[in-house]
Amino acid sequence: MNKTVTGCIVTYNNIATIDNALGSLFKCTEVPFRLFVVDNGSTDGTIEHIEKNYPQVTVVRNSKNVGFGAGHNTVLDMLDSDYHAIINPDIIVRDDVISKLVDFLESNGDVGMVSPEIRFPDGRLQILGKRNPSPVFLAASRMRGNGEPGETLRKYAMLDCDLSKPLDIENATGCFMFIRTKLFKELGGFDKRYFMYFEDCDLTREVNRRSRTVYYPGATVYHEWGRESKKNFKLKLIQINSMMHYFAKWGLK
Known about the structure:
alpha/beta
């Protein structure tokens, strides 16, 4: 049975990483796959480069930077697939991850969204929250240095569980999410209150109200994670604002 898949990447001045993302996706993906790129007003030539070199991409131009979630929501009414992938512009795949995730959801009808294993390009596992964020978890993540994660961060990332097999999670990272298209559309996409950050935590909670979100280590993507909010004061303020929206909506637990 052939299932159709759409994907969306939101770009904003991503000329440095977009070739790796698009090139690897088109090289490795074997199922019917339509990819949208929504550009939020790039000025570095990102969108012109895509239009010139990737004619198979459906390009949507926004006149300004509307943010991550709103950018992805731009294509919501255009989606006619069975499954939809939400993909960061700094993601690389090395095998047919999309088909693996389709097979997983086909075999697990009660799962609404799946999150693959996420690693750095050098193979190291990324320590990402899988339980609902809390002030304590977020503080532990913010203060982590280059050493091994402490007990609190290990709990947040569910390193206290066996990550070699699928398990239900409360929080899927937005760098790569794979969701049933019908469910994504029923939810209205991402909550528009978040410009950037926490919209992935929010979407996971909305999915889990109706279905299940599962971490699936049988599929791996590679993420050139820059943790820009630690380096950029403006992004740090955006992150704090999103955090306040999140806790106002869901509470502190």
